[in-house]
Amino acid sequence: MLEFDPQTAALMLVDMQNDFLHAEGAYGRAGQASPSIAALPDRLAGLADAMRAAGGWIVSTHFTL
């Protein structure tokens, strides 16, 4: 188990947005939906909650054109 100090750590979430994740987003409309990718928000929610509870940071990036 990796030890770290949540007070000085961050969970970085990259491109967790509808166009990549949702069946009606850009990728889904193009027929490129992926159930494993669509499941990411629910899979990461517990980790994000634990990081917040421990006083850590949540960092999110978004790709836009």
Describe this structure in words.
- With 65 residues, the protein is of the alpha+beta class.
- The chain has four helices and two strands, in the order βααααβ.
- It has a two-stranded parallel ribbon with strand order 1-2.
- The longest helix has 14 residues, at 40-53.
- The model has no long low-confidence stretch (mean pLDDT 88).
Instruction: Note the main sheet.
Output: 2 strands, parallel
Distance between the termini: 39 Å
User: What's the total count of β strands?
Assistant: 2
Assign the structural class, choosing from mainly alpha, mainly beta, alpha/beta, alpha+beta, or little secondary structure. Answer: alpha+beta
Radius of gyration: 14 Å
The fraction of residues in strands falls at 15-25%
What pattern of helices and strands is seen along the backbone? EHHHHE
The DSSP helix count reads: 4
Short key terms for the protein model shown above:
2 strands; 4 helices; alpha+beta
